[in-house]
Every structure is written in C-alpha cells, then in structure tokens.
Design goal:
The chain is mainly alpha-helical. It contains five helices and two strands; from the N terminus they run αβααβαα. It has a two-stranded antiparallel sheet with strand order 1-2. The N and C termini lie far apart (44 Å).
C-alpha cells in the first residue's frame, strides 16, 4: 500500500507541476490579449481531479483492496502512456497549453504532434489515467465514479473548448509539422 500511496503522490506532484506551467502560460496568453472561456466548469473539474487523487488510496485502504499483479502492471503501463501523451500535448502547445480554456486571438490552431490525429488528445490521457490509476490497486469504485463524472465534465469542457477554438479562422490553422 505504501508504494501505491507514493505513486498517487507522484501523480499529484505532477499535477502541481502542471499548475505552475499553466499559470506561467496564462500570464503569457493574457499579455497577448487572450480570452478565457468556461470559468464556470473549472472548479468542478479541479474538484473531480482532486477527488480522484484522494479516492484512490482511500478506497484501497478502507475497502482493503488487493494488489493484483495481472491487473496492476498493465495499468501502470497505461498510466505511463497517459503521462507521456499529456506531456506531448503540453510540449506541442508550448505557451498556449493551459488547464483553463484560454485562447489568444489571431494565433493559428495547432495541427502538429498529437493534434494531427486528435482534436483533444489531452482528454484521451485524462480518461486513460482516470481508469488506470485506481485500477493499479483495484480501486474499481473510484475508477467507475471518476469515469462517469469525468464524462459529464468533459462533455461540458469539450463543447466550451470547441466554441472557443471556433473563433479562430480556418485560414489560421497551422499546417502539420
């Protein structure tokens, strides 16, 4: 159980690192006239993600969930892949990446890296992580609750993001690199 707590703590530390990157990028964007959308759903998204990080070890501890290697190791691989995809998104978007929906007017849409294939690749990483992190230690209730709640939040978030990105003229979409 201790190693699982350390794994969840490492994911939480990575999230804190993301928040520092996002804050820096927010300042960069706002200095260029950026517009933020979707402030209303942001607190729910933050609470949901915090709940995932708390729910995983709490369920394992309270329900005495077993460690099942045949499930755990594939889930560790999925979790690692999700983190790699998330950071590929962050690096690809550079100063434009954020945990909030912030769009700098006049900048072209990004159509390189994982964005060549998917419109919202970071959300694929979020979904994979939301399933994998709890299942590393068979916290299946947390996995189900997070997945269902996350589907509702992502439905709102993706609509909001699509509306914000639709304001960018098609002629400004960057060519794949």
């Amino acid at each position: 159980m201790i190693w699982y707590g350390l794994l969840v703590a490492a994911v939480a530390a990575e999230r804190v690192g993301e928040l520092f990157v996002a804050r820096r990028n927010e300042r960069w964007s706002l200095a260029r006239g950026a517009v933020e959308a979707g402030q209303g759903h942001y607190p729910a998204m933050v609470a949901l993600h915090a709940g995932l990080l708390v729910g995983c070890p709490v369920e394992v501890w309270l329900a005495d969930r077993p460690f099942v290697p045949a499930l755990a190791w594939p889930m560790v691989a999925v979790l690692a892949g999700a983190q790699a995809l998330r950071w590929w998104c962050i690096v690809t978007l550079g100063s434009r990446w954020n945990t909030r929906v912030i769009v700098v007017p006049g900048l072209p849409l990004v159509a390189r890296g994982p964005y060549r294939v998917l419109r919202h690749p970071n959300y694929v990483a979020v979904v994979a992580e939301g399933v994998a992190l709890p299942l590393v230690h068979t916290a299946w209730v947390t996995a189900i609750v997070f997945t269902l709640a996350n589907a509702a939040v992502l439905a709102v978030r993706i609509r909001c993001e699509n509306r914000a990105l639709a304001a960018v003229p098609a002629s400004l979409t960057s060519a794949p690199a």
